[in-house]
Structure prediction request, 432 residues.
Amino acid sequence: MDMLLTMSNKELTRLEVMQRIQEKRLTQKEAAHMLGLSIRHVRRLYRAYRDQGAQGLVSQRRGKPSNNRLDPQVVQQTVDLIYKYYRDFGPTFAHEKLTEVHDLRISRESVRRIMIEEGIWKPKKARKLQVHQMRERRACFGELVQIDGSDHAWFEERGPKCTLIVFVDDAIGQLGELRFVPVETFFAYCEASRHYFERFGKPVAFYTDKHGIFQVNQPSPLGLGKGQTQFERAMQELDIQIMCANSPQAKGRIERANKTLQDRLVKELRLRGISSMQAANEYMPEFREDYNRRFAVVPRSNHDAHRPLLKKENLDLILSRQETRILSRNLTIQYRKVIYQIQTQRPTYALVKAKVTVCENAQGEIKILYRGRPLDYTVYQNQAKHAQIVSSKSLDHKLKTPNPPAKDHPWRRYGLRVSGKPISDIEQYGAD
Prediction:
């Protein structure tokens, strides 16, 4: 009785070679070269073919479970943990959490396969090819720092929507600063920049988008150019260049970092039960260190391009809102609808028509500088104007509505027009 034998293409090729060896049309050395095997292995295959026929060339493991297969209990444990904690995680991130938090020793590809089989995660579909000009990373750490604000529901439904200010070094992809703020403002970026300067020093340049904080987008109506924003002025005083990208793809380094943060950071905040900006900012150093350990790369040069802060660079003044005012004859200026009176021991004429700089910090504190030195001042308070007293009689007279003319008034007997309408129409419908 003939037995039906199932063989793979590789096994069929080996069968043909063994037959040729048996017919002495091929040597074992030539067969080894043809099959890409050692001579010893070819001898072993030929011996099995001679003793058992074609059955000897078929793998004995066919139909049996793999020795490397996962334990069904481990697979079920993985599925339960993913459903409970990491349902919306990607395979890579889920594998990290299963290994670090639950000490579950399973490969990343196994996690990917399990999530696909369970319908928890779907592979990314083929996307339309987009060609963008590649830009190499800068060579040195601190040579170029990309900054941006990411608006997102960072706390999901547990807290208010806010903005995450992100600093990413272009050379190594390291997160330099992460700070949650209600909205993107000049003072928010100043506070983030201050923390960055105190930790690393001053970078050579900042790479930003064309937000109104970084660039004046409307030309002056007087034809004086675009002018300068407060952030540009502050960075110029610190000798830091501001570069604005023309498209999101141009600053792809930070755009990719924002995408990763919107995936990983949201889930990390959820796992730790963080639902406020204060608690999130306290957690940011720990998250930043873990992120940099995983994703930062080695720069081409070991040189650190950061520069230390100079003694003359007062960050409290530089990172404040500054506007220029001219003192009046009585040494007063107006700023944000408030009048400030300068108090000085100098002769009055020495400061008349002098230019002063009004500095306002994030707390609303005001300093007035003249040639870099602060001036004493007092806030001028306008006296409240009392309302004019009106007697009750005169008030009744002012509020009294005049009586309409009587129906038999003389003007009603003539063919006059009121508001363009004949008298007859007015009597019928009334005047407007």
The chain has five domains: 9-57, 72-117, 145-216+228-295, 320-380, 400-429. Confidence is low (pLDDT under 50) at residues 425-432.
